[in-house]
Each structure stands twice: as structure tokens, then as C-alpha cells.
Predict the structure.
Amino acid sequence: MMRAARWGRIVNIVSSRLSSPFPGLYRLERLSSRASRMGEDASAEVASDNVLITCAAPGRILTARTAALDKADVGKIGAGRLKR
């Protein structure tokens, strides 16, 4: 549809953990890595039709899961401080 219109924008939201892996989030990291690579491959195919595909990694979002991971990991970080 976008190719036929010769214009379009697709934004894939991926994990920022691609650049800094975190223990316990292996599945998320693998999925985000694949989504990012798929976007790169598709982008090359549709660029000539003025369709732009990008990946955005919004950074850390506090959820119950990330809070539990932080709590479990707090002893591994100097003086108990976490980067926020």
C-alpha cells in the first residue's frame, strides 16, 4: 500500500538493550535484534519508493519486570546505585 502510494513511514520500537544487554532479558534482546535487522533489510527494498523504515529505542521504561530485575541486580552494582 505504501509502495503503491510511493510514500510511507514505518517506525519499529525496539529495546535499547541491543547496545547494553541486561541479564534476564535474553528473549527480548533476541526479538529486538531480529526486528531491527528485518527493518534494515526491508528499508533497502522500499527506499526507492520513498518509504522510510526506522527503529526507535526509547530507553528504559519502569515496569514490574524491570523493577524486579533491578532489585535482584542491586547487589552487583557498586554502592547499590542503579543508572536511571
